[in-house]
Description:
4 copies of one chain form a homotetramer. The first copy, chain A, folds into 2 domains: about 15-170, Four Helix Bundle (Hemerythrin (Met), subunit A); about 190-425, paralog of FGE (formylglycine-generating enzyme) (Alpha-Beta Complex), CATH 3.90.1580.10. Helices cover about 30% and strands about 10% of the residues of chain A. Chain A has helices spanning about 15-35, 55-75, 85, 110-130, 140-170, 235-240, 255-265, 300-310, 315-325, and strands at about 190-195, 200, 220, 225-230, 270-275, 275-280, 285-290, 355-365, 390, 410, 420, 425. In chain A, the strands form 4 sheets. The first copy, chain A, has a 4-stranded mixed β-sheet. In chain A, helix 1 runs antiparallel to helix 4 (about 110-130), helix 1 (about 15-35) packs parallel to helix 5 and helix 2 runs parallel beside helix 4. Chains in contact: A-B, A-D, B-C, C-D. The interface of B and C includes residues 249 and 378 of B. Chains A, B, C, D: Pathway: Amino-acid biosynthesis; ergothioneine biosynthesis.
Amino acid sequence: MRRPAQTSQPLPALLCFEHLQQRYRQVRSCSEAICAPLLPEDCVIQSMPDVSPPKWHLAHVSWFFETFLLLPFLPGYRTPDPHYDHLFNSYYRTHGAPYPRAQRGLLARPSLGQVLDYRRHVDQGMGELLAAPPPAHAGEIQRRLELGLQHEQQHQELLLMDIRHIFAQNPMRPAYRDDLKPPAGGDAALQWLEFPAGLRHVGHAGDGFAFDCERPRHRQFLEAFRLASRPVSNLDYLTFIEDRGYQRCELWLADGWDLIQREGWQAPLYWTRIDNQWQEMTLAGLRPLEPHAPVCHISFFEADAYARWAGARLPTEAEWEVAAADQPLRGTFLESDLLQPQGGRGNALRQLFGDVWEWTASAYRPYPGFAPLEGSLGEYNGKFMSGQMVLRGGCCATPEEHIRASYRNFFYPHMRWQFAGLRLATEA
Amino acid sequence: MRRPAQTSQPLPALLCFEHLQQRYRQVRSCSEAICAPLLPEDCVIQSMPDVSPPKWHLAHVSWFFETFLLLPFLPGYRTPDPHYDHLFNSYYRTHGAPYPRAQRGLLARPSLGQVLDYRRHVDQGMGELLAAPPPAHAGEIQRRLELGLQHEQQHQELLLMDIRHIFAQNPMRPAYRDDLKPPAGGDAALQWLEFPAGLRHVGHAGDGFAFDCERPRHRQFLEAFRLASRPVSNLDYLTFIEDRGYQRCELWLADGWDLIQREGWQAPLYWTRIDNQWQEMTLAGLRPLEPHAPVCHISFFEADAYARWAGARLPTEAEWEVAAADQPLRGTFLESDLLQPQGGRGNALRQLFGDVWEWTASAYRPYPGFAPLEGSLGEYNGKFMSGQMVLRGGCCATPEEHIRASYRNFFYPHMRWQFAGLRLATEA
Amino acid sequence: MRRPAQTSQPLPALLCFEHLQQRYRQVRSCSEAICAPLLPEDCVIQSMPDVSPPKWHLAHVSWFFETFLLLPFLPGYRTPDPHYDHLFNSYYRTHGAPYPRAQRGLLARPSLGQVLDYRRHVDQGMGELLAAPPPAHAGEIQRRLELGLQHEQQHQELLLMDIRHIFAQNPMRPAYRDDLKPPAGGDAALQWLEFPAGLRHVGHAGDGFAFDCERPRHRQFLEAFRLASRPVSNLDYLTFIEDRGYQRCELWLADGWDLIQREGWQAPLYWTRIDNQWQEMTLAGLRPLEPHAPVCHISFFEADAYARWAGARLPTEAEWEVAAADQPLRGTFLESDLLQPQGGRGNALRQLFGDVWEWTASAYRPYPGFAPLEGSLGEYNGKFMSGQMVLRGGCCATPEEHIRASYRNFFYPHMRWQFAGLRLATEA
Amino acid sequence: MRRPAQTSQPLPALLCFEHLQQRYRQVRSCSEAICAPLLPEDCVIQSMPDVSPPKWHLAHVSWFFETFLLLPFLPGYRTPDPHYDHLFNSYYRTHGAPYPRAQRGLLARPSLGQVLDYRRHVDQGMGELLAAPPPAHAGEIQRRLELGLQHEQQHQELLLMDIRHIFAQNPMRPAYRDDLKPPAGGDAALQWLEFPAGLRHVGHAGDGFAFDCERPRHRQFLEAFRLASRPVSNLDYLTFIEDRGYQRCELWLADGWDLIQREGWQAPLYWTRIDNQWQEMTLAGLRPLEPHAPVCHISFFEADAYARWAGARLPTEAEWEVAAADQPLRGTFLESDLLQPQGGRGNALRQLFGDVWEWTASAYRPYPGFAPLEGSLGEYNGKFMSGQMVLRGGCCATPEEHIRASYRNFFYPHMRWQFAGLRLATEA
């Protein structure tokens, strides 16, 4: 997954490797739990070039630990198969030539079983390394371990995005899981929160982990703005559709209009109309839309067109961050095991975190003074800073401890297989 | 697989359904034996649009029996899943809208296990039908059963072609089987056999099974010609390569030259040069070339260019058939379990059958008076009669009882994942 | 234009160079007359990759004389610009790297004026050469000159095809000429002519000019067949359309069905329905269809589907040639200056020549014993013998002296910007 | 051309229509002067989808006056041809369906002569309208006229960009003009100017014309930064090339690296190495590079990679504007008739305006509070605000009166046929 890397901040003198080992085990087992309902057949499919087969995700995150921790720091460590370095390198070109992304679905082998063996092999090496980290590199090991764990958490969300896409291509409409509850309902209450103009701080502050692209913290002047108390709901979005939103070119950016004409888009991804009723292909199979849940799986172009239709606009990422800065981390995350955005209730600012990523009006570009990590890890974030838009807040497939107010996610404006929705803003 | 269908020839009064049931079981179990060495992961891959996942082959041939025998003739028969009719219809558009061919690799489900269950389900239905065929339809049932068995045999060869292609894409170069013997060697002896001019009969004669496109038997006048006693060998073909055959445009048909430039072809499919030695990716993994085995996995354009370079030409399909008409069915077939073309010895006309399909100079077009089968089965062959070239003789992956002198195989001239080679001819 | 070249037949001892010079002037001026109604702007357009800008045709045919006659045989001849050899080489790869075909429309320069100057320059050289041909090469010069003239005549037809296509793309629907008469009407009379089975001779006989691909004359055995007395008319074809011919997959070859779905074809090229009436974009602009004129601008796939719908088939090229062998050269040719297929009358075999090219059932492949010309001229025909179908008889844009019963034209089965129609045949 | 439209600012009570008429004539004649050296053949070519044929530009800018001024405000005005509204509408979808952009090169007609007649026709109408503007609409007419003139000036630059591209495709390397002087030399002196942190104003201020996207003027907080006194020169850029800049993936954004691999880019557009010397295809034909002139015709990706290689970065558009705000409008513009970026001398801040557009680090997005124009003119700018990057300062093909410090030009990051270079910045 393409995401930014940790800057080299000072570390506490006492390194809690025991705690880290426990976290390592917990994060690793979570990835496998996500794949537990899958058959070997499911783990091979690449349903579009942006999707990776689940098996590949499981192997790639292990390769990350192997490449950046075991090979440099664990003497005598051997990879189980020399091909893995080629096959499971995602995009680190300074490290070596990665296997072509669009061909990941051609790899029947290594089998799922072999991939799980590879995970065991890496886990064993990591156990050895963390049991007795060479003191000269303890700081660097801790930093890279943290990055490796954050990286695997990103892939947990990617796994769920990709699994949903893979299952949705199948005319049999199989369910990834049949034990998922339907999403909670909610109400349509909406309030506009006002934020005054002023010089604000944006970007990650403090000691905790953050990717390099969230730094440095810096000042931005914001004009006064208003922000909606909740994300746009399925019901709101249906009104847009019924008002011929997809047929009115004046609502769309030119590239977006071309896209929806070319692709024939008439609704969010995964929506389908059966017997005059909108349904949605979810991780639990086909289900009726929950009207009060946030709309999900829309592209930037759709979010932007909706906002224009609504007489509003998308918030900038700075506006979003200012609004979120003092909000509690509350919302629907991976840990809830609901795997679907939920309805909410009340007028207060809600669901900034979790449920759906919120498209912002901001292009993904470096902050003033941005410096990527050293070496191959510098490819983690910075090289993707063109053509993409920022999304904020995490979603129902994001691990809760992975998200924070300064977190910058990014996708191309045409992409919509991520759990992406929107929240409206206007000038004050 | 796209191949022609049986004409409605007279049938023997006594229908040997017991014998047919035995043949049915034998053919069906052969398909499963071919897939036995595969993992579920292998069975999902579609390595290019022309390839189908092994799982799909196993299901499609069952769908054929279900659609053309069980549903029309076995009262009360129910398909296990109504989606199967859509998913496993290959190209019978008059029957219903087939699932898009290029997307067969997106289907994780039905799983391999479910496909094997589907086979059991169809086998049980076929057992019931053949145990007590309704007398009014016994003749038609026998004819369609024969067609269904021939059809499944075609897919046995396709399975092996596709498995080879799937495994060859993987940089780990896995072997489909590791118990295969290396191909037998041979000698380079070559003789030119002369055939006089005259009016000949071409096309299937007699009562046995033949596809509709092999009929009607008709007359063709052939000028005198000479035919090589054996196929072109790897050694021969290496000489062509070393003589810069792939660099000399005057040897190539215009479409062929464009193709090899665009694709960068420099050798047959599956050949690779490692440490200055040519090796071949076989069903047994990477192996050194056997110099005296027939060259294999070349396109029509390569066969044609080779022949021009050699001062010869390809035989027409009529020439080939005339030469083969009185030859014994001898050569390397599926039953040998060698799965690789073999070297041969001696000056006599040899290896017309088995080992490698031989490209001919003839476009695949209808014989004078050709009539396709009635109904959807009429789509079996006739609708493919444009743009393709005829190949003759079968190969090492063809069941021996499936081939005969009048058999017309056909592929587009750029295709080469089938076991295809050539034999030279000249004017007399 | 891709067409076959003359074989090296013996020549009459007395070479009539004076007559040849006169023919040279006549053929050359005819090309310029075709372009006279064009503006410089028209001469630059390449409306699809198969089309060449008119200016390019005018230059290329001159390059042919320059390359194969002036440079080898006229001492001291210099080309006006060394770039021309690259720009105006169509496809003679053994001669040098041709400028990419699909980019001919990028060439504003040389201007039309410069191209006409180039023609004058070549004409002057040819005048000198033909006034005093070096006796040692007189035979070869005469042969190449004949080939060059035939070549330019082919391009005269191509010019008209391409001009029609260029003008038809323009929403303003400009007319190439506004002085063209509407096509003559005719009647719907149709008779089936019977031809008995037997051994026939096919291919060019005698001393006159023929392309290499028309030779050698050879024997073919033909089963008895019937041939329609006239081509299929617009009225006939409208019945096919109204009978849902373009919607019924069982009528189509598989490649044809895919094509018409992909392209959305519902009628011949240039037909358009305005206010419920079919009109046709002709060289005279938009005009109502003449019901009794032969249908024109259809692909092989459409011709084949029509024939299947009509319960008939296309004739093979041998059948066509046998029927045409003793027919007079009568029909609508370039010289008529009608530039549109015409209706006809009566039951007798008619319009075999001229009006519309007739698709045959035969793939364009070499005759037994075919040998291409020596050297680069060998690229004229032979290298196009894959994937294309034969058409016979010439059309309203073909010079009358250019056509004969043995003439083999060829196009890919999807092409239809040539003046192509069909005539039905059946088994006897 | 896609560019922003004027906001509805208050107008001076006294409308100087006489002055406007004079400006109208001057701007219009400048477009024709640019096309004067062209042949009709040159005016038809569309050398890539982004390029428009010169003829089309000449017509489209006239259509703009016709559509937004003559048809609404001049009673009785008639367009010379009803097709023009379709053919010459660039992208105003709310006005009607524009003729497909990528097919502009298919239009031989209207001829160049007819297009010039169209211009006369529009000029006459404009003369009538401006001689007696209906008082009730005088303000709106003046605003739209100003917009129409600015629009035509944008197309003057586009004409020169497109002409350069058209001529450069031709292997004959024709010169658009042979009377152009070689660019002036200069020196390599470079100084870093420091700008302190602070709250700045960005965006157009005052009464003069500006496009809607330059407004509203608003505050931005800028951290301290340094800006190079001059653009990067050809000599600088050659050092980057020789240091293997195009081969080192770590210097490139991921999309940029993919692009240069796919396209095989090794140098700026129009550069070519002949006999080991770099030359450039200019509007005067092929010429040696002037080492001290600014590098030109590079994409955003190349500018960004160069900056990274140089240990610097691109300035943001706000930084650029702050630096330019109090600089005189000095540099090489269209009026100089040099048509090539020039070398410069000295350490002072120079060539911010003219010579080459300077890529900035900023995505082209709306300013806070941005509001597009009403009606179809609202499509002028706002709908292009995705995926593009801002360039600042104008170039040698920009009319001097068309540029200002707040002017925002924008192109996709892969584009480089505009006159685009860069200037370095760093953190302070």
